[in-house]
Amino acid sequence: MRIIINNHEYEASAGDRLLDIARSNHEHIGYFCGGNAMCQTCYVKVLEGNDLLSPLSEEEEAFLSSDLVKEGTRMACQATVEKQGTIRFVSAVEEVKQMVEHEPLHLVGYVAKMGWEAIIKLPDTLQLQAKRELDLWTVLSDVLSGIGDAFTLIGRACQQSCCCKTGNCECESGKG
Question: What's the pTM value of the predicted model, to 2 decimals?
Fold first, then answer.
C-alpha cells in the first residue's frame, strides 16, 4: 500500500493508524496526547484515498465539525488503513508550517476557522471526554513517549539545518 504524508511516500499495511505511520517515518505531525484522542493535535487533511480508511470513530465524530469532515479532515490517531490503494494526506502541523513560510496572512483566517470549528463541537467533545475511562498510567506513558518523539524530531531538524548551512549537507541523500 502506498501512503503519501506531507509529500513523502511510504509503505503501509491494513490496520495501521495514520499517526503510527507518520511517527515511524518521522513525519511532521502533532500527537501530544500520544494517540489517545484527547489533544486534537493530530488532525490531517486527506487529499486522496479517504475511502480506503476506517469510518469516523466516536471520538472523531465528537471532535470534528461537519465542515472539517467534508474537507477530508481526520484524526490521525483514530483513522486506520482498511483497503489497498493510495492514501495522500497533509498534517495540520505541516499545513500551518507551509502557510507561515509561503502565505503568512492566511494564518489568521485558518486559526479563526479552526477555533470556530472547535467551539461548534465543544459540547460533543465535553460529553465524550466526561464518559471516557482512561488508564492514567497508559496516557501518561503515551504523552511522555510523544514528547520524546518530538524532541527526536527537533534534534534531527536542527542537525539537518546545521549540516546544510555548513555545506556538509547530506540531507537530500537521506543521510542527514
Answer: 0.75
Q: Using the structure block, give the residue that is written with the C-alpha cell 542537525.
A: 159
Q: Domain map of the chain by residue range?
A: 2-134
Q: CA 170 to CA 132: how far, in whole Å?
A: 47
pLDDT in tens, 14-60: 999 999 999 899 898 887 777 778 788 899 999 999 999 999 999 99
> For residues 33 and 139, is the Cβ–Cβ distance under 8 A?
yes
Task: Please state, in angstroms and rounded to a whole number, the distance separating the CA atoms of residues 18 and 75.
Answer: 8
* Nearest-10 crossing angle of helices 92-102, 106-131: 160
2-134: CATH number: 3.10.20.30
> What's the CA gap between 34 and 69, in Å, rounded?
22
